Amino acid sequence: MKGLKASIQNLRDVEVDNIIKAAAETAIQIGIKGDFSMKRKRKVKQMALYEAEDDFCRLSPETDFGSQCNLVFDSILTQIEWRFEAMSAVSSDFDFLSGHSLSKSSVDELKTKAKNLSKIYKADLDSSDFQSEMASFKYQAAAMMENFEKSSPMDILQLIHKYLLTDAYPNTAIAIRIFLTLPVTVATCERSFSKLKIIKNYLRSSMGQERLSCLAVVSIEHEVANALDFDDVISDFASKKARKVNLN
Q1: For an engineered disulfide with 130, which of 18, 114, 218, 240 has Cβ 3.0 to 4.6 Å away?
Q2: What's the mean pLDDT when you consider all of the chain?
Q3: pLDDT tens digits for 89-115?
Q4: Exposure string (b/e) for 124-148, b if CB count within 10 Å is 16 or more?
């Protein structure tokens, strides 16, 4: 992300003139006029209190184009900074769950990070147990994995499930699952709102919240829904809702 920001910043500071020159050369090659055409400035009546014309109106077309490019680059940089600031903060909270950090960090450092993460997710993680798990998991995972230093949190979670270590390291598994399921963008939320507009139209204005949520989940996860066997679902529903009790 830092590299992307640096490249865009370089385009904004240095490369705008080069872009204009390259565009002019390309235009000439394909038979299009390569320079900026000068337009006659429209005369606008001004009040007597106006001392001078607006400086922006006196910009040349080439300078005006460069200013517009800089505005676009500034907007992109601002959006990148805003959108990924929260993601960077979350990533820094969970960075100790990767193989590289586990192998390089000391036990005290891992305990401190586990304690800080437990404060954020109090309902999911037990602070004292999580710290104890980190102290032993650091060495056990390194002994069980060949490329431990290069392993990702997903690799570590697969290791826990492969060797049935969930009971020994429950907080570690929960922390990794939280990290892997956190949304990294707002695209999922935007898709959800798009689905809601389709589901709850003006003909279904009286639909309740629970039904709306269920239909939204079915619509969003339509691939999973299409693969379901409705006979099994109906049988399971009927068995749970049956009012008669079999007497043997």
Answers
A1: 114
A2: 81
A3: 778 889 899 999 999 999 999 999 999
A4: ebebeebbebbeebbeebeeebeeb
- Asked whether residue 133 carries a pLDDT value surpassing 90, the answer given is yes
d(CA 30, CA 96): 55
Q: Which amino acid is at 140?
A: Q
Tell whether the torsion through CA atoms of 160, 166, 172 and 176 is positive or negative: positive
Cα–Cα distance, 138 to 162 (Å, whole number): 17
Q: Which of 172, 175, 174, 93 is nearest to 137 (CA)?
A: 172
Confidence of residue 55 (pLDDT cuts 50, 70, 90): very low
Taking the C-alpha atoms of residue 16 and residue 67, their distance in angstroms, rounded to an integer, is: 9
Q: How far apart are CA 165 and CA 149, in angstroms?
A: 20
Contacts of 146 (CB under 8 A, 6+ apart): none
The contacts of residue 2 (CB under 8 Å, 6+ apart) are none
- Using CA atoms, how far residue 57 sits from 41, 52, 54, 61, 68, in Å, is 8, 11, 6, 10, 14
Burial class (CB in 10 A: 0-12, 13-18, 19+), 244: exposed
What is the Cα–Cα distance from 85 to 139, expressed in whole angstroms? 33
Which pTM does this prediction carry?
Answer: 0.52
Characterise 164 by phi-psi region: left (phi > 0), alpha (psi -120 to 50), beta (else). left
Q: State the CB neighbour count (10 A cutoff) for residue 45.
A: 5
